UniProtKB/TrEMBL annotation:
This is HTH tetR-type domain-containing protein. Residues 1-24, 215-278 are annotated as: Disordered. Residues 238-247 have a biased composition (Gly residues). Residues 50-69, 304-323 bind DNA. PANTHER family: HTH-TYPE TRANSCRIPTIONAL REGULATOR PKSA, HTH-TYPE TRANSCRIPTIONAL REGULATOR RUTR. GO terms for molecular function: DNA-binding transcription factor activity; transcription cis-regulatory region binding. Gene3D superfamilies: Tetracycline Repressor, domain 2 (1.10.357.10). The lineage of its organism: Bacteria, Bacillati, Actinomycetota, Actinomycetes, Streptosporangiales. Residues 1-10 have a biased composition (Pro residues). Residues 27-87, 281-341 form the HTH tetR-type domain. InterPro entries: BetI_C (IPR039538), Homeodomain-like_sf (IPR009057), HTH-type_TetR-like_transc_reg (IPR050109), HTH_TetR (IPR001647), Tet_transcr_reg_TetR-rel_C_sf (IPR036271).
Length: 464
């Protein structure tokens, strides 16, 4: 989702511009470097991308790449800007004249994105990685979201002022939701394109949204007002965020939960348990916590085992005594998360998940931003080529869509407000959860995650 992106705070260094000029002045080699870089960032993420490999594919030396882009960070920002320029030139050449036109523009952008899987994968991966404040693209995405959300909010506010939209619309909340839906659907589509019709579902969402906030119920075609049926507002008119891929609740107090997610897996010592087993269990928990922190900062591919070992206070050889390789460490960390996930536990216990559990999940998430950051980074990174967690996230999204659909069906019936089916609503729930969580990680002071989730859950229940 990218209207013309403003210069991020690091714009003075972006793309290697300055004395050497921009890539838009006919420098075919710079363009080729950027095109190859897009592919590598899409396939490997930022940390695991190698300038040497990019140079080899372009057919030049690494110093040749550095002649055009002084650092990998500059090249990454140039690749992001390239993506924005393609979208801007296609759909955002002029300012939308109405709220409906702004939404139609975003629908066309979603359709364009569906034709550009490499660009979408790169954006999804780098945006997830940028949840880490230390990531070189963090400032870029923080500035980008501020700009994009401002553009959408301004269009909605002008629509209310002109009478196109109702006067009681929460413009800021809807702007965040629209952005979240686009970004969240992209993750599901990148993981398995045949499971989610990204462009089609966003179009349907935008149509329901505009009909629910116009005084006469007209749709995206503002030239010919449609009928004004007495339908309840769609799930798209209030704050966003519901059950998704975030971690589930653990004991509320720090004394119960230990020092991190690894401590959750620790079991009480039984009568026959020896001191060696006790120490090993504690050490494994500490390693899992260290891995969580390092993966949150660098992703899986960019996190060397040596960095995890150092964070855990071990040598690399000592870590390998407990986990034979990095892939095994990742698997056990993901498995731990499954064991503390609230919806999974409810399903295994035979109870049906409900919207109230979704609100509780959001309240928990904000208490453990490190856990949320780690799994946001890993979910985004899993869309890259050959990632060891890809199958895990593909299966998890499919399962979570089923669980969310069951929760919606049990609580709201076969037809949701605005005409959604439970299956369609489930995909939307996952999308807004992931999208709003990313916004919260990028700028926690600007986003009230639990409040947005609670308001959206209330909207689904009451249809008003």
């Amino acid at each position: 989702m990218s209207p013309r992106t403003p210069p991020p705070p690091s714009a003075s260094a972006r793309s290697g511009r300055g004395a050497r000029g921009g890539y838009g002045v006919g420098d075919a080699r710079r363009r080729r470097i950027i095109e190859v870089a897009v592919k590598h960032f899409a396939d490997r993420g930022y940390h695991a991308t190698s300038l040497a490999r990019i140079a080899e594919e372009v057919g030049i030396t690494q110093p040749g790449v550095l002649h055009h882009f002084r650092t990998k960070e500059q090249l990454m920002l140039a690749a992001l800007e390239h993506r924005d320029e393609l979208a801007s030139a296609r759909e955002f050449a002029r300012r939308p004249r109405s709220a409906a036109e702004a939404l139609r523009t975003l629908v066309r952008l979603a359709e364009f994105n569906a034709s550009q899987p490499g660009l979408v994968r790169m954006f999804t991966t780098l945006a997830g990685e940028a949840a880490d404040p230390g990531h070189p693209a963090h400032a870029y995405f923080t500035g980008r979201y501020a700009m994009v959300l401002g553009l959408i909010e301004d269009s909605l506010r002008e629509g209310s002022q002109s009478g196109e939209l109702r006067g009681d619309v929460d413009h800021g909340a809807i702007a965040r939701e629209v952005a979240a839906v686009m970004d969240g659907l992209q993750i599901q589509w990148c993981l398995r394109p045949d499971s989610v019709d990204m462009a089609g579902q966003f179009r349907q969402y935008a149509e329901r949204l505009i009909r629910s906030i116009t005084p006469d119920g007209r749709g995206l075609d503002t030239e010919s007002p449609g009928p004004a049926p007495a339908v309840a507002p769609a799930p798209g008119t209030g704050p966003a965020g519901v059950s998704g891929t975030g971690p589930g609740p653990v004991p509320a107090s720090e004394s119960d939960a230990g020092t991190g997610p690894g401590a959750v897996a620790r079991e009480p010592a039984g009568p026959g348990r020896g001191a060696v087993e006790e120490r090993a269990s504690g050490r494994r928990a500490g390693i899992l916590l260290a891995a969580l922190e390092v993966f949150a900062e660098r992703g899986f591919r960019g996190a060397p085992l040596a960095a995890v070992a150092e964070r855990a206070g071990l040598s690399q050889q000592g870590l390998l005594h407990y986990f034979p390789n990095k892939e095994r460490l990742l698997v056990e960390m993901l498995d731990l998360r499954e064991r503390v996930d609230s919806l999974r536990m409810l399903a295994e216990g035979g109870a049906s998940p409900r919207l109230e559990h979704i609100v509780q999940l959001a309240e928990y998430n904000v208490t453990r931003p490190g856990v949320l950051q780690a799994f946001t980074v890993l979910a985004a990174e899993s869309v890259t080529e050959g990632h060891p967690a890809r199958d895990y996230f593909v299966e998890r999204y499919a399962r979570m869509r089923e669980l969310a659909a069951a929760a919606l069906r049990a609580e709201l019936g076969e037809t949701l407000p605005g005409g959604l089916t439970p299956a369609e609503g489930a995909a939307l729930l996952l999308a807004v959860q992931d999208g709003v969580q990313l916004q919260w990680l990028l700028d926690p002071q600007a986003v009230g995650l639990p409040a947005l989730v609670e308001a959206f859950a209330k909207l689904l229940r009451e249809g008003a």
